[in-house]
Amino acid sequence: MEHILGTEWEIVPAGGATGEAFFAKHKEQELFLKRNTSPFLAVLSAEGIVPKLVWTKRLENGDVVTAQQWESGRELKQAEMNNERVAKLLKKIHGSKPLLSMLERLGKSPLLPEKILQILEEELDEELKQNDVIVQSMEFLRKNIFLIHCDEKTVCHCDVNHNNWLLAENNQLYLIDWDGAMIADPAIDLGMLLYWYIPKKEWHDWVQRYGLTLTDELLLRMKWYVIAQTITSIQWHKIKSRYQEMEKWLQFLKGLDHEN
Which residue positions in the chain have pLDDT lower than 70? Predict the structure, then answer.
């Protein structure tokens, strides 16, 4: 990275799973650098959903490096996920035509429930397939798959964990880490957020702030996706030998009502 910015810049790894992200500082200027970010980042920046994109450079080896304005701030606390600004920003994302258009141009096709169920049935290991709560959950997914179709397909972040919400020092709210974005039913994001962070008695008000009515149909769609995503997490943690996390998500799955 030094050869892009010059030796006067201080550049350090910014962490993250890929090892492709860096923090760069020179005098008063601070940048977040990332290698081979999707062109999707430019639209996210233009929409004000992530910190401002400053420049993009293509290297001789074909790699692309992006520089974003570094925003000092903090991640949201779990209790803050009930804030109206979270609902409004998620609604803005789900309603954005430029975001949807860019993902379509990048070749993304809608993620349908049938595909999610097919992946689970093909990739779940034999031990988990025998687990009682997984068996019960998979039966729920199969039984309800034809009841959850939704014509609305939007850009979904697919990991609306509170760690991915950045509140900058200037009070601007961002949703970062878009590597897993998909075109899908917005209930994917809504379900994760409500089940993880919002007391059930407050769901109606939260969904109203988002701009919808909490219908039985929406409740079923959210539950379907939360169950599917939880099974995916259980399998992932098992593969990584993170058995404590796997057990936590098994208990979460066990606590879900598997009646529709």
Answer: 1-4, 6, 15-19, 258-260
Residue with tokens 């259980």: 234
**Strand pairing of 165-168 and 73-75?**
antiparallel
Q: Give me the amino acid identity at 132.
A: D
- 3-class secondary-structure state, position 168: strand
Give CA–CA dist 183/109, Å, rounded.
6
| Stretch(es) of the chain classified as CATH 3.90.1200.10 | 75-254
Give the pLDDT confidence of 192-204 residue by residue, as tens digits: 999 999 999 999 9
Q: What is the DSSP string of 179-212?
A: TT-EEE-THHHHHHHHHHHS-GGGHHHHHHHHT-
State which fold the 2-70 domain adopts.
Phosphorylase Kinase; domain 1 (3.30.200)
Between strands 29-35 and 21-26, the pairing is antiparallel
Which part of the chain has CATH 3.30.200.20?
2-70
Indicate if 159 belongs to the active site: yes
pTM: 0.90
Using CA atoms, how far apart are residues 151 and 149, in angstroms rounded to an integer? 7
Q: Among the options 125, 132, 151, 159, which is catalytic?
A: 159
CATH number at 75-254: 3.90.1200.10
Q: Would you tell me how many other CB atoms lie within 10 Å of the CB of residue 79?
A: 9
Look at the block and give the residue holding tokens 């799973």.
17
Minimal CA–CA distance to 69: which of 98, 85, 100, 48? 48
